[in-house]
Amino acid sequence: MMKRALSTGRVIFANSVRLRAASALNGRKFAVRTFQSTTAPRVSTVKLTRENYPVERLPYGTLSAEDIAFFKSILPESAVVQDEGDLEFHNEDWMRKYRGSSKLVLKPKTTDQVSKILKHCNEKNLAVVPQGGNTGLVGGSVPVFDEIVICLSNMNQIRSFDKVSGILVADAGVILENADMYLRDNGYIFPLDLGAKGSCHIGGNVATNAGGLRLLRYGSLHGTVLGIEAVLADGTIVNSLSSLRKDNTGYDLKQLFIGSEGTLGVITGVSVLCPPKPTAVNVAFLALESYEKVQELFVDARAGLSEIMSAFECMDTRSLNLVAEHTNQPLPLGEEYPFYVLIETSSSDSEHNSEKLNAFLESAMEKERILDGTIAMDETQLKNLWAWREMIPEAAGRHGVYKYDVSIPLPKLYGIVSDVQARLKEHGVLGDTEDFPVIDAFGYGHIGDGNLHLNVSMRRYDKNVEKLLEPYVYEWIKTVEGSISAEHGLGFAKKKYVCYSKDEGMIKLMKSLKQHFDPKGILNPYKYL
Ligand code: FAD
Ligand code: MLT
Ligand code: ZN
Fold first, then answer.
1. Which of 119, 129, 250, 285 is most open to solvent, judged by the fewest CB atoms within 10 Å of its CB?
2. Probe residue for ligand 1, chosen from 110, 131, 263, 518 as the CB with the greatest number of ligand atoms within 8 Å
3. What is the pTM of this model?
4. Ligand 3 centroid to residue 78 C-alpha, Å
C-alpha cells in the first residue's frame, strides 16, 4: 500500500479503508432494461412523444397485412416482432423520456435482408428507425409515431480479425463489450469504451460517433473506423469495408455515416483499427477543492503522464453523492469533496506505468493540487473505482433527468453548471422538498476532451423547467463557442437547436445530402435536421 504525506502533514492514500469502501460496488451490474413478452403486457407510464411534444405525423404509408406478409417471406417468423410486450422495449428510450407506437420490429440477420426491407419500405413510403442497443440519450433510437424499427441485434457476427494489423471487421449488431472481449482474447482492445458497453452495438456507436471514456487516448471513431458497409434508403448496398489504413481514392464517404444517427442509411458492418491491449493499467481517484484545481491537475497530467494517460474524468460532488445514494455505499474517499478526478494510465510496462503515476501524484500533492485520493491496487479495485464514474448516468436516471452533453472551452466549462443552478434557484424551481420539481443540477464528464455532461435531475418532468433550460443552455453554449452536442448526437431532443452549433450554409448542405441519400425521407424521420 502506498502512503504519502501532504506538505500539511496530512496523510493521503492510507487507502485500506477507502479501497474497501470502493470495492463494495464489486460485482454490481448496470441495470439493463429489457421487456420480455408476458401474458399481460406491461403498460408503460412514459408519455407518448407525440402527446408530449408538438410534432405531427408526416404522410408516410401505414403498415398493411401485405407488408407483414412480405417481411415474413424474407425473414424467419421470430424476426418479425409484433407482440405488444416485445415491442415495448423498442418503442421506449433508455431515459424513459420518449415513446413511440411502432407496431413492428424487424430483426434481419444479413445485409441482403436489410436491403430487401429498405427497398420495400422505400417503395411503399414506410418510415423506419434503425436501432442498435437502444442506449442513445437523445431520443434518436425510438420511433416518434408508428415507424418500423429495424433492430440490428441479430447481425452479431465477427467477420474477420487480422492479428498483425489489429483490424476488426464485424457486423454492426455486435455488442461493444462482446467485441472488446473477443479482441482482448486476441491481445487487442476496441478503441472505444463507455458505460453502456454491455448493451450498445458497435454499429450504434458508429452511427452516433460515440466518444466515451478513452477518446483522449485512442481518438474519435472518425479516425479509427476504416470502412463501413451500409444499406441506403432504396436498398442499395454500399461497401467500403476496407482493411487498409490508407486509401486516397475519392471522397471519404464513410465519414458521412459516422454520426449520421440512422438518417443516411443502415450501417450493417464496420471495419475498425484496434489498439493493442495494455498490460499495465492503473487508476487513481482524487479529490480536489475547486474546478480551477481540476484544470491545473489536467495540465500537469498531460505534461507528467503524457503518453500513458488513457482517461481523465471529472465529477462534481453531487454526481458522486447520487451514486452513493443509488448504490447505498459510502463515498469512495469516505468524505465529501467539491470535485473528483479519475485518472487512468495504461501501457505495456507496469514498472514504468506505476513509477510515472507515483511521481505525478507526489508532485500533485506537493503543489497542493489534490486534497485526498486513492489508487487501485488490483483489478477489482480498479473496476470499482471506475464504477463510481460509470454508474453516474444510471444513478441520475433513477429520477427524470434533462441531459445536456456539451463541449465548452476548458476554462469556462464548469461555469454552466453554476449558472444553471443559480437560474433554477432564482426561479424557485430547485429545492429540497416535494414542492420543487428540480432536485439538483450537476456536472461530470470527459474533461480531458472538453466534454461536460450537465444533468438536471427532476422529481417530475415539468414543461416550465424545460422552458427555463432551453434555449438558455444552448444560448450559453453559443456565447462561448462550444457545441450543443459533444458526443450523444442530435436525435429528437436537439434537432431544433442545431443552429446553435452549425451555420446556415452547413445546415443547407446537410439537408441537401439527406435529400440525396434519402429522397423520400423514410430513414429516421422527425430527428437530426
Ligand atoms: P441506439 O441507441 O440504438 O441508436 C442510437 C442512434 O443511432 C439512433 O439514431 C439510431 O437510429 C442510430 N443507429 C443505431 N444503430 C444503427 C445502425 N446500425 N445503422 C444506422 N443507424 C443506427 N455516448 C458517448 O458518446 N459516450 C459515452 O460515454 C456514453 N456513455 C453512455 C452511458 C450510458 C449508461 C448510456 C445509457 C449511454 C451512453 N452513451 C454514451 C450514449 C451513446 O450514444 C450510446 O450508448 C451508443 O453509442 C449508442 O449505441 P446503441 O447501439 O445503443 O444505439
Ligand atoms: C457518460 O459519459 O457517462 C455518458 O456520456 C452518459 C451520460 O452523459 O450520462
Ligand atoms: Zn459521456
1. 250
2. 131
3. 0.94
4. 35
CA of 200 from ligand 1 middle (Å) equals: 6
3-class DSSP assignment, residue 304: helix
The protein residue whose alpha carbon is closest to atom 2 in ligand 2 is 445
> Taking Cα atoms as reference points, which of 193, 209, 295 lies closest to residue 485?
209
Query: Angle 39-41-43 (CA atoms, 0-180°, nearest 5)?
Result: 155
CA quadruple 304, 314, 260, 244: dihedral positive or negative?
positive
**CA 16 → CA 62, 286, 360, 419, distances in Å?**
62, 15, 21, 38
User: Closest ligand 2 atom, CA of 313?
Assistant: 2
Determine the average pLDDT of the residues in 299-312: 97
Cell numbers placing 153: 441485434
Nearest to 391, CA basis, from 313, 466, 336? 313
Question: What are the angstrom distances between the C-alpha of 1 and each of 12, 305, 331, 362, 379?
Answer: 11, 21, 20, 15, 15
pLDDT one-digit tens code per residue, 462-515:
899 999 999 999 999 999 999 999 999 999 999 999 999 999 999 999 999 999
Q: Say what the pLDDT of residue 21 is.
A: 32
- As to burial, measured by CB atoms within 10 angstroms (0-12 exposed, 13-18 middle, 19+ buried), residue 96 is middle
Q: What confidence score (pLDDT) does residue 353 get?
A: 96
The predicted-structure confidence for 32-88, as pLDDT tens digits, reads as follows: 333 333 334 456 889 999 999 999 999 999 999 999 999 999 999 999 999 999 999
- Asked if residue 79 lies in contact with residue 154, where contact means CB atoms within 8 angstroms, the answer is yes
Instruction: Express each pLDDT in 510-525 by its tens digit.
Output: 999 999 999 999 999 9
Query: Is any atom of ligand 2 closer than 6 Å to the C-beta of 195?
Result: yes
Q: Tell me which of 405, 449, 485 to substitute to probe ligand 2's pocket, judged by most ligand atoms within 8 Å of the beta carbon.
A: 405
Q: What is the mean pLDDT of the chain?
A: 92
Q: Which three three-digit cell numbers place residue 390? A: 460509470
